[in-house]
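Cross-posted from the bioinformatics board.
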Amino acid sequence: MTIRLGLVGVGKIAHDQHIPAIKASPDYELVCTASRQGSVEGIPAYTSIEAMLDGEQVDAVALCQPPHVRYDAAKLAIEAGKHVFLEKPPGTTQAEVVALADLARERGVTLFASWHSRYGAAMDAARDWLAATTVHGIQAVWKEDVRVWHPGQEWLWEQGALGVFDPGINALSVLTALLPRPFFLRDAVLEYPANRHAPIAADLTYTDATGLPIGATFDFRQPGPHNWDVHAQTEAGTMLLAKGGNELWIDGELKTTEPEAEYRGLYARFAGLIRDGGAVDADTVPLAHVADAFMKGRRVTVEDFHY
Amino acid sequence: MTIRLGLVGVGKIAHDQHIPAIKASPDYELVCTASRQGSVEGIPAYTSIEAMLDGEQVDAVALCQPPHVRYDAAKLAIEAGKHVFLEKPPGTTQAEVVALADLARERGVTLFASWHSRYGAAMDAARDWLAATTVHGIQAVWKEDVRVWHPGQEWLWEQGALGVFDPGINALSVLTALLPRPFFLRDAVLEYPANRHAPIAADLTYTDATGLPIGATFDFRQPGPHNWDVHAQTEAGTMLLAKGGNELWIDGELKTTEPEAEYRGLYARFAGLIRDGGAVDADTVPLAHVADAFMKGRRVTVEDFHY
């Protein structure tokens, strides 16, 4: 049976990723949208989730708004008996995701906290390759131009927003999925523009119980092409997991050919959870790492940022 | 069989709480200490945990040092096959506690992340009383004079330290144990002395999926007597859980008579976990709330603090 889906928050990520993935999937029918401004041609458009839930029969909703309004929308939807797909990060705190998961279990509906980079086309190959060798060190480097990837998005810089951890949490979702052991922060430096409430760059030093050197560098100030890369030095050679989990290179040679299909993977997983009787998949570990960095990290002030 | 215990970090909390509780317990023999400066009369004293583990046969260690050195000591002890008791907070990040729990399970030893206020003498009575009525609002108020409770403790203010959340996490350990539903932060203000890296006060507004108003106020600048109180307004009257979980008052009348015995409770629990084949009890939820507050909270600068 087709899942009747309502899409909430029709902005950049909805147009770039959600709508194409939903249209390509046999599992879903996109029946309506709710957004203050955006809409999808030919589909009923509401300006609030309340009006959408009143006006249309939907089985599930996908929430793509900025994270600070996601909890209230998710709660409304769960209490209306709808399955809920959360864009990343799933909330502004770990605890609100835990509260939503608790509520979803109580109501018997699916809550899916999605981490799209974990569905990168080369993730399984990279995990298997690392598991078969001895790793000496691993570093995630997530650098991009915020003006290109988040044009004009003032919410990213507001009090309580994640700043560069918004893309950086993708790197943490990848590292936590790649490495067999839990890792933890030894040292962190967070760079705050003097005129902003959220970091524009972060340098993070992690390790695990074996003492493995693990690093992560995030920067929103990279002009030109972006890097969403994981580098590893191993007994069997050097690994580069490039393009946010989508290409595996070993010693400079490309080893994978699968095309990027992250959101198709996410929507297939969401449909599976719904068909599994309303199962909950709400991993907060990447967000716990971000919260740890804010708790333990050193703040330094850098020059103003303007779009 | 008596558990041979080594005590690591012989400072204020060790003298005030751990040593009396260990001496009063039939479960333990205190066989040695490791501390840069402190010691216990009549008991072999080492200046490092490494020397202590080399020099004495112990079954378990209790770690009472400041949290920033706790991970390395715990890892050493677990890898030496010792059961580990962690003072609160159990680490400087959530992730390092998760890593220790993972390692303890791998080695088959107990890891106990202790939350002493949860062992307050009136905690069960308060939980039962709240569960039997309708709660309209609940507030934790933890205010004390840092000069009295943490005299000269510079580590409290260093980068990555918790400041007023060091006592405040006790309040969060109590609220998370009292309330049946997960709650989450709506708004937070953290006050930082201009000359310090950690907050001296915090005002936290929480709620849960039912919309219950939940508040927490922490302050290190209270002269005179301290408050470690939880107030609740309910259908059945007003509740005051006073003295850090040790006295239950309903409508101004004291309802409990059990004396405070938090650390006796903790050490009984630790012995139970050890006898249960090396079970792990490492709840990180109170620390997750603290990390959420650092991630989401607004920082304001207040006047310098000096001891």
